[in-house]
Amino acid sequence: MGYLNPLLRLPAGRALLELPTADRLRIAKVMRELRVQANSEAEKSWSRRKGFAAAYWRAVSTYARHVAHALTRKPERHEKADTDVGRLLLDLERARLDVELLLDGARRLLPEGQQPEGADARQWARAMKRRADQVAHGEAALMMGAKSGEPAGC
Q1: Which residues contact 53 (CB under 8 A, 6 or more apart)?
Q2: Residue of 116, 6, 141, 2 whose CA lies nearest to 62
Q3: Statement: residue 75 has pLDDT above 90
Q4: Contact present, 103 and 124 (Cβ < 8 Å)
Q5: Are the C-beta atoms of 141 and 153 separated by less than 8 Å?
Q6: Which residues of 104-128 are buried (b: 16+ CB within 10 A; e: fewer)?
Q7: 3, 83, 100, 110: which has the highest count of C-beta atoms within 10 A?
Q8: Beta carbons of 27 and 67 less than 8 angstroms apart
Q9: Does residue 127 contact residue 114 with C-beta atoms inside 8 Å?
Q10: pLDDT attached to residue 9
């Protein structure tokens, strides 16, 4: 975030930074999931013309985002970091959470028969690439059929 998180102006908000790194990252992950779900509820409420409910869910989403950012923020230069190793561990944990989010998305996109077993990110990346190639070839075949006026595959 390119601004001072208003949550960190509050003593309880700053107390979040005192939590152990593993706890902070787990809570941040839940807050990010809450943000996505709250945004979805806001959109549903808005489409049903329920403005107050939409505003409520949008606020929940915003607060969840602020908490997640506060929990995973990088220390400023003028702040004394625990250690270089601590910073590296935090960066490593952030990267692990990012990979976890990507794997979760891949699980939702890939048909069950094309999903690799386990959680090896390289296997999932290869499976996603194969699927993207299949989709691209399928779209190309459809476009070729549309240009020639014949159905694809004839």
Answers
A1: 41, 42, 45
A2: 6
A3: no
A4: yes
A5: yes
A6: eebeeebeeeeeeeeeeeeebeebb
A7: 110
A8: yes
A9: yes
A10: 84
Q: If pLDDT is split at 50, 70 and 90, which confidence band does 42 have? A: very high
The token duo for 106 is 């891949």
Q: Which of 67, 68, 39, 66 is nearest to 55 (CA)?
A: 39
Q: Token pair of 53, please?
A: 């409910």
Q: What's the one-letter identity of residue 28? A: A
How many residues would you count in the chain? 154
Instruction: Please write the tens of the pLDDT for every residue from 107-133.
Output: 788 888 888 887 788 888 888 888 888
C-alpha 126/C-alpha 122 separation (Å) is: 6
Residues 92, 93, 99: CA angle, nearest 5 degrees: 90
Whole-number Å distance between alpha carbons of 61 and 67: 10
From CA 51, how far away is CA 57, in angstroms rounded?
A: 10
Question: Quick one: CA torsion of 60, 66, 71, 75, rounded to 10 degrees?
Answer: 180
CA dist., res. 37 & res. 60, Å (int): 10
